[in-house]
């Protein structure tokens, strides 16, 4: 029976089941998961962890061991877990701790390396790095997006003219300089000096670039946007490493940053800004054409396949596209459609709740995870409900497809729905909505998509989502507990972009 737990008690229960303090190398958390680095994976008691009332699921096939606790809970449990970890380590005997740590490190090094090799495909590594660049920006995107929405509402109502310019400045300041932050994070992620990455990216947003001409064309400030900033900072990182390989140590502090900024800046001005500008324009044109021409079909595909993309970590590739659209058009038309996947998940969970009246543990899990699901945080429902049962994950995808088709259909009619920031979805996306048909129409279309996703996800799950073995009463827990990734909720994947910024105190995580 899952019931609310005191954070201190939950932390105390987690620590021994993770192998004790000597087995922990790092601690971090996102919006829903506690992420723990381990020396020896074999010491972790998976089944005992799943049985804890506060644990909604586990993600074990990753570089960090991830415990799904849900929003709010994880933010309260993590500090208690870290404090307990520190206190336990301090009171342990030095000799015993050292011996245990050395033994665990020796045994765990091979396991960790094997896991890294298994998951370190070029595609996965690239997507993780892209996420590590953009995910830390999400809190600012959310805050500025909500302020921009409030400002637009006040302007439409003709109210508070004295304050709207101030709100506009607050909301737009970050977006005007987002390229600098992207450059900073890119250099940091790829092993360069972060401030140099920010410096070369700042060239893109500098107003003076309007005086630069090449090949008969004049640059515009901001041309190339975040994609240009990413490319410039990445190039700057390689230039910096190249300089350090031959510049004498006595001159390194002078020559390396100078050559890095100069060479990268020239390439950025005379090549990268043009190329990235063309690519950014193509992304915006392509997104608009896709929804205007094939809106319903595109919405069905995007909404239906987003949950599997999240499970594979491939959704991270969409983050730069969202950011480019927001920077270019003021909102991303893709996010509201992708948010329909969460609506299908909610509908599927409600159907499971109705059908499994005998399974009190599952119904309690759904009750605790449903509020987060309604606000767009789907992991508790995914790992606690749909994946363990199997079929409801597929019927949730059907609900997402239906909701996406609904929103896409109206895009074909000219009423596009967009979001001024990435991160939130579900009901939490309403304050960030923007579109071509006015606020009321935009909100109505988005709400209609959510209701469609709820209804189809519920109906499909109610009729097709639960087999006889699961519905049959006492046998349900055994059926739900099966084997394999889909049975126990342990799948390979990374946090959704909606998880927001990682809060890492004891180590780094790899979105």
What order do the helices and strands come in, and which of them pair?
Blueprint: H1 7-17, E1 24-29, E2 33-38, H2 46-50, E3 57-59, E4 65-68, H3 73-91, H4 94-119, H5 122-134, H6 138-157, H7 164-176, H8 178-189, H9 194-205, E5 213-214, E6 217-218, H10 225-244, H11 249-312, H12 319-329, H13 335-338, H14 340-355, H15 360-374, H16 379-389, H17 391-412, E7 417-419, E8 433-435, H18 439-464, H19 468-471, H20 476-480, H21 485-488, E9 503-504
Helix pairs in contact: 1-3, 5-8, 6-7, 8-9, 8-10, 9-10, 9-11, 10-11, 11-12, 11-17, 14-15, 14-16, 14-17, 14-18, 15-16, 16-17, 17-18
Taking the sheet with the most strands, its summary is: 5 strands, antiparallel
Task: Please state the overall shape, judged from the principal axes of the Cα atoms.
Answer: globular
Helix % is 55-70%
Provide the domain count: 3
Q: Total strand count, please?
A: 9
- The rounded Rg comes to 25 Å
- Regions with pLDDT < 50 over 5+ consecutive residues? 93-99, 473-511
| Count, helices | 21
């Amino acid at each position: 029976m899952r019931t609310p737990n005191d954070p201190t008690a939950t932390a105390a229960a987690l620590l021994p089941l993770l192998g004790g303090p000597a087995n922990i190398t790092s601690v971090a958390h996102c919006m829903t998961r506690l992420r723990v680095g381990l020396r020896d994976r074999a010491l972790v008691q998976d089944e005992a962890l799943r049985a804890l009332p506060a644990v909604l699921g586990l993600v074990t096939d990753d570089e960090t061991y991830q415990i799904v606790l849900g929003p709010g809970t994880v933010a309260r449990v993590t500090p208690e877990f870290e404090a307990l970890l520190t206190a336990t380590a301090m009171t342990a005997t030095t000799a015993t701790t050292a011996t245990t740590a050395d033994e665990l490190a020796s045994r765990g090094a091979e396991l960790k390396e094997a896991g890294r090799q298994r998951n370190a495909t070029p595609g996965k590594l690239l997507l993780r790095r892209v996420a590590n660049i953009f995910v830390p920006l999400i809190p600012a995107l959310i805050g500025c997006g909500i302020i921009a929405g409030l400002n637009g509402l006040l302007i439409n109502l003709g109210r508070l003219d004295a304050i709207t310019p101030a709100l506009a400045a607050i909301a737009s300041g970050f977006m005007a300089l987002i390229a600098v932050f992207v450059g900073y994070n890119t250099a940091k992620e790829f092993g360069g000096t972060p401030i140099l990455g920010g410096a070369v990216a700042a060239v893109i947003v500098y107003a003076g670039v309007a005086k630069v001409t090449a090949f008969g064309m004049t640059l515009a400030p901001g041309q190339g946007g975040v994609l240009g900033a990413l490319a410039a900072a990445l190039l700057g990182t390689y230039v910096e490493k190249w300089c350090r390989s031959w510049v004498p140590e006595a001159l390194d502090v002078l020559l390396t940053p100078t050559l890095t900024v100069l060479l990268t800046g020239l390439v950025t001005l005379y090549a990268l800004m043009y190329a990235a500008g063309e690519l950014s324009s193509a992304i915006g044109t392509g997104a608009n054409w896709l929804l205007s021409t094939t809106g319903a079909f595109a919405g069905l595909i995007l909404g239906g396949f987003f949950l599997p993309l999240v499970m594979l970590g491939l959704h991270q590739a969409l983050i730069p596209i969202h950011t480019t659209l927001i920077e270019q058009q003021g909102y991303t038309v893709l996010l509201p459609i992708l948010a329909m996947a969460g609506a299908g998940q909610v509908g599927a969970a409600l159907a499971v709740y109705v059908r499994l009246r005998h399974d009190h543990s599952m119904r309690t899990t759904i009750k605790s995870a449903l509020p987060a699901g309604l606000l767009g945080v789907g992991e508790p429902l995914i790992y606690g409900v749909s994946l363990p049962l199997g079929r409801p994950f597929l019927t949730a995808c059907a609900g997402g497809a239906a909701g996406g088709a609904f929103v896409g259909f109206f895009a074909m009619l000219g009423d596009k729905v967009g979001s001024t920031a990435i991160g939130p979805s579900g009901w939490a996306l309403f304050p960030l909505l923007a579109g071509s048909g006015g606020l009321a129409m935009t909100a109505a279309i988005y709400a209609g998509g959510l209701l469609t996703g709820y209804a189809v996800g519920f109906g499909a799950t109610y009729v097709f989502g639960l087999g006889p073995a699961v519905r049959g009463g006492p046998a349900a827990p055994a059926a739900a507990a099966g084997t394999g990734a889909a049975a126990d909720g342990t799948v390979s994947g990374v946090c959704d972009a909606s998880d927001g910024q990682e809060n890492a105190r004891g180590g780094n995580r790899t979105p």
